[in-house]
Amino acid sequence: VPPVVSDCRGPVAPAPCRGRFSAARPACDCGAAMAWQHVRSCAAALRRLCGLTPLLALGIIVSTTASTYYSAWVRPIGIRDHGLVELCIFSLEIALLLWSYLSAVLRGPGFVPKHWEPSEEEFRPRVGPMQERPLIAEPALKDLLQYCSECECYKPPRAHHCSDCGKCVLWMDHHCPWTGTCVGHQNMQAFVQFTHYVALACLHSFLLQAEVIVRLFYHWDSSMRFWGFLRRTQTLITIIFAIVALATMLLVGSLAWDLHYSITHNTSMVEELVIEKAHRRRGDAKEASFIYPYDLGKRLNWEAVMGRSWFTWLLPVPPNSDPIWPPVRHECGTFDFSMEQLSQKAMRLARSSTLRALNEFDDGESRCRLLYWCSFFRRYGGCCSDGCCWCFSPGCTGPRLSVQKGDWVVVWKKRTHWLSVSLLDGGPTGTVIDDSGWVPECCFEELRKSNRYQVPFQTLLQGAWDAQPPPGDIEAPVRKVRVHGPLVRVMFSRTPYILRADASGAVSLLGCTLESCDEEKARWSNGEVWTRAPPVQQPGCTTENGRIGLAPRGGGAGGHKCYDSDDSQEGDSDEAPSGDAGSDGHADATGGGSPDEDKKDR
Q1: 3-class state of residue 131 by DSSP
Q2: pLDDT digits (tens, 9 = 90+) for 473-532
Q3: CA–CA distance, 115 with 408 (Å, rounded to integer)
């Protein structure tokens, strides 16, 4: 049983570790159903092993090993004799290499089963405290976890969808073509051992076979003996495989060294990108810095991946850590990482444009039949000149989307006259349908006529609010709430929640619908009322038309029109200090420049 960890800002005993998802077992838990499940797992493992790249990797390992055995022990041509002890050591290295490689391939990374959804007893005790929620309401699963429309399941906090595998992978690090599958929770330890054993065995093999190159220099003084030794078939094969061993050692060894950073910080390559985006997003929004919740310290991080004993560090054994609810830092919550990913997707949607379709498009129209050559030549940017390219383009081999005239879509990206879009249910401010695909650009309005996607009342909700609890709820705390774009968070909290829109045009937050909203008040369906928070007046500020202005830095006249720090941080206002002249008719000492210079200073 794992130790008690700190979760949701309080000590909570975690659920028992499970190698498989207990919630994903079939309804008929009989022996025949479980046997059929094992047969399917074994068939999938053998299918991965029989792939092109795994067989190629095994071929390189076997051929390099055979060349080393032959040139060092069977028919030695080196400069020294290699005894039985060195033979046993090299054989042990190859055995550990093959064991770890086969374990990484056959075991797989661990996938999230289809239609998986955590039970109420699993996720409800792990939700953060009420003081960190903008509304007095219980969050739903869609507010805490990501939903995968392809797998039709909720993704655990550290799960990510792999397009190559077509499944959601637990603790996904990357998709390795040499194993034919992803590197994740189940095979991460075996993959780390494999990279180290490859570097060690290739170094040993290179040192053994490089003696042939040294022996060539012994015959350097005699041209006849030099070329006679070099023309031997065994000499040429040994030199070739010595170079192969050296190149493999450098390439795989660099990957093994890079994995040290991931294990030390208990992160993955995918999560490193999420962390980088989190720091950039929070820096732009002037929020508190992001704390990665799974960095438990160097020792605990290594134990989470490699185990606690030397036996598990050397041999590839199945992990015993919890793939669903891993332990987190004491100042973080279970859903901090998944909610950060939801926030990044919401901000990406807020930066996207909406367009209306002028022509209909069928996803099966003019589908090219030379998909292989199209995908090959598409790398070199081939397209037609009429603005609607059907060949050598993303829309030729990628997924397409059917649209009807008058449909509203949100645009994700543009490539060679094709747009990657998703349909909107309910107009330009409606709900985004998960399915996305490529549509020709000529089917829509011009991009310059597009507008940014916004949920209804998003502009009115921007800024700081005082959240008053429902009438009669004495225990509910009064909270300071800030809205930035589609994200809502409580002051001094690191977990944002998302404003959502439905097809009817209503706005919801934590399952509560926004009933009315103006510049001063916002009423929610649970009875709570938000009132506009008064701006904090700074020393030396002046008031003009109910707005609070910051005094100029040089202490000049109070005619400058600056807004409070909250508005300036959130970017609600486009105005900047104008550098107006003081009462004496002269320009201010710090604001006497041009408006462009003042904007730069601002």
Answers
A1: helix
A2: 666 677 899 999 999 999 888 889 999 988 788 899 998 999 999 989 999 998 899 999
A3: 29
Distance CA 6, CA 333 (A): 9
The residue type found at 75 is R
Residues 121 and 127 sit within 8 Å (Cβ to Cβ)? no
Beta-carbon contacts of 495 under 8 Å, excluding residues fewer than 6 positions away, are 128, 132, 333, 335, 336, 339, 489
Write out pLDDT tens, residues 358-398: 989 887 655 554 544 455 454 444 444 333 444 445 666 67
pTM score, whole prediction: 0.78
| Residue 51 identity | G
Query: Ramachandran region of residue 276, left (φ > 0), alpha (ψ -120 to 50) or beta?
Result: alpha
Tokens 């950060």 belong to which residue?
340
Cβ atoms of 481 and 468 closer than 8 Å: no
What are the backbone angles phi and psi of residue 321, rounded to the nearest 5°? -85, 160
User: What angle do the packed helices 233-264 and 298-306 form, to 10 degrees?
Assistant: 130
Distance, CA of 330 to chain centre: 23
Residue 167 near residue 224 (C-beta atoms within 8 A):
no
Contact call for residues 186 and 107 (beta carbons, < 8 A): yes
Sheet with 408-415, strands from edge to edge, namely 431-440, 418-425, 408-415, 353-356, 451-452
User: Can you tell me the distance from the alpha carbon of 223 to that of 231, in angstroms, rounded to the nearest whole number?
Assistant: 12
Instruction: Give which of 100, 111, 222 is closest to 167, Cα–Cα.
Output: 111
SS3 of residue 167 by DSSP: strand
